[in-house]
Amino acid sequence: MTTILVVDDHPSFRAQARALLAAGGFEVVGEAASGRSAVEMCGRLRPNVVLLDIGLPDSDGFEVARGLALLDPPPAVVLTSSRDASAYGDRLPAPGTLGFLAKDELSVASLGALVEGGARS
């Protein structure tokens, strides 16, 4: 089973994502509200996948993704934002990530496609 850590500074989005993903068969092992707590929780919980908001209060998701890539083994990272991918220009696709999903496009199918695609690579 795919285990997921949801990282977002908005509690309502974390709760919504947790419910959606759990109903779709993913195991949500935790939630984090900051980049620092995301790295700490990944080290402790060892999720397979991190759904990572780009706009965090203490750092941006790109920076956090680089930190997560140093873990052994590193989790797969999917960046998310309330903004469209075009808002990030050439920063997407980001090195070390499976891809990007706008928050309003998050679904079990869309996340599953990225995770499965990353597993085959």
Shape: globular
Reported by name, the CATH topology of the domain at 6-83 is: Rossmann fold
* Number of continuous helical runs: 4
User: How far apart are the first and last residues' alpha carbons, in Å?
Assistant: 19 Å
The CATH architecture of the domain at 6-83 would be: 3-Layer(aba) Sandwich
What is the averaged pLDDT score?
93
Describe the sheet with the most strands.
Answer: 5 strands, parallel
Order of neighbouring strands in the sheet with most strands: 2-1-3-4-5
Structural class: alpha/beta
CATH superfamily of the domain at 6-83: Response regulator
The H/E string reads EHEHEHEEH
By DSSP, the count of extended strands is 5
Q: What is the percentage of strand-forming residues?
A: 15-25%
Which radius of gyration do the C-alpha atoms yield? 13 Å
Unreliably modeled segments: none
Helix content: 25-40%
Q: What's the CATH class label of the domain at 6-83?
A: Alpha Beta
